[in-house]
Specification:
With about 140 residues, this protein is mostly beta strands. Helix content is about 5%, strand content about 60%. The chain is built from 1 helix and 8 strands, in the order βββββαβββ. The chain starts with 11 loop residues before the first strand and ends with a strand.
Length: about 140
């Protein structure tokens, strides 16, 4: 049986500041990664080690090149780059974050709400300006795989 692999180039990341009415694709994305973890409390006793598990905590690291000319919003669809992300960061905006492939999400779909916890940029003399941001999710992720 032939294997089908998820290609990063076709794994789209969209952001919305108004619950999906206006949707922006983050353009010039170079890397994205979702991290899931939970706190584990361990207590040693004469009966052995007792463990308690906390709720799942999710965050996403995103890296992109700063595109100075992202497509403007038209028919509720547009492109986001550094400037718009910085605006959302400064306002502590709650975003609907969606990852999907292909564009309709038929292979893989994840969606949840998050805030930009950290936003950094870097401009190498011999390269393009890039930015990194950390999205801190609130609540559960809607996932279809």
């Amino acid at each position: 049986m032939a294997q089908t692999y998820l290609q990063g180039r076709t794994f789209y990341l969209t952001l919305s500041a108004n619950s999906g009415t206006d949707v922006y694709t983050l353009v010039c994305l170079t890397k994205q990664g979702l991290s899931r973890d939970r706190a584990v409390t361990k207590q040693d006793s004469q009966c052995g080690i007792a463990k308690a598990y906390g709720a799942v905590d999710r965050s996403m690291n995103v890296e992109a090149i700063n595109n100075l000319t992202p497509a403007a919003l038209a028919a509720h669809v547009g492109e986001a780059s550094y400037t718009l992300c910085a605006t959302w960061f400064e306002a502590n905006t709650l975003l609907t974050v969606t990852r999907k492939t292909p564009t309709d999400g038929s292979y893989l779909y994840m969606s949840g709400t998050a805030r930009i916890q950290k936003l950094d940029d870097s401009a190498d003399v011999a390269g393009s300006m890039t930015f990194n941001m950390v999205l801190e999710f609130e609540g559960d992720l809607d996932e279809t795989a």
